[in-house]
Amino acid sequence: MSEKCLYKKAQDDDDLDTLSTVCFQINPGVQLREVPTNGEEYLLKVIKERQSYSTVTKCNKDYSKFAKNQSCFVKELPHAKAPDKLKPTIEWQNIQVADFSDVRMYISRLLAKKSLWPKNLDTVAIESNNINSWKSFFAEREPTLRCVLGLNQTLLDRGLEMLTEILNKVEKGETIDHKTGQWIYAFLACTRQPLVSDTVSILRNLARKCAELRSHIDPEDENANVAAAPLNIFICIVARYFRQYDLAD
């Protein structure tokens, strides 16, 4: 039985007029069959089918009427820079990331072994899209492990969105109140990884809002550093722990 050799065809550079080269040379006596019976017939069938398609495929439909207000690019909101006197040092940021990492590691162990969870977890009943329901939730409860461990990522994301909405009500020159800050920290500590795109967007919006609030604090005020501290913490966590480095100070 004669052997048939499949090989890459040698070609001179001058002969190449396409971006693709012939990888297999098929015996000219091979016939095209509807149902291939050997390797060469199968390759011939694939080649013939490929020739019926253009090298570059273009969309021949006009979808513009469905996307009049859309752009092919995502427009990033501005990120306010810190006043020099309120900008945290790298050493301070490293301490915050290390402390946050310890909290995350502890919570990760709990999530991995439910037998370690606190007994009698709080039952959370909340209208996820109702900001007043969230405001009542944040006001009436404490951000304890009993409360936050049972929340799934969907609720954690929605809660962070609502907390960012609450920050929109903070007056210029003011800062986050203590309890709101506790809730933000708790939700960040329980956020699951790897991050999905929606969660990344929520975290970035939170960091930008914190940066905006910080930019309105008078650096000459005697309490300026105290007011900026929680804002710096959340910017630092989002930027350096959750790897949104372009938002880092």
From TrEMBL:
Domain of life: Eukaryota
UniProt cross-references to InterPro entries, sorted A to Z: GEMIN2, Gemin2/Brr1
Signal peptide extent: none
Subcellular localization: Cytoplasm
Predominant subcellular localization, coarse grouping: cytoplasm
Alphabetical keyword list: Cytoplasm, mRNA processing, mRNA splicing
Role played: The SMN complex catalyzes the assembly of small nuclear ribonucleoproteins (snRNPs), the building blocks of the spliceosome, and thereby plays an important role in the splicing of cellular pre-mRNAs.
Subunit structure, interactors included: Part of the core SMN complex.
Family: Belongs to the gemin-2 family.
Protein name: Gem-associated protein 2
Lineage: Eukaryota, Metazoa, Ecdysozoa, Arthropoda, Hexapoda
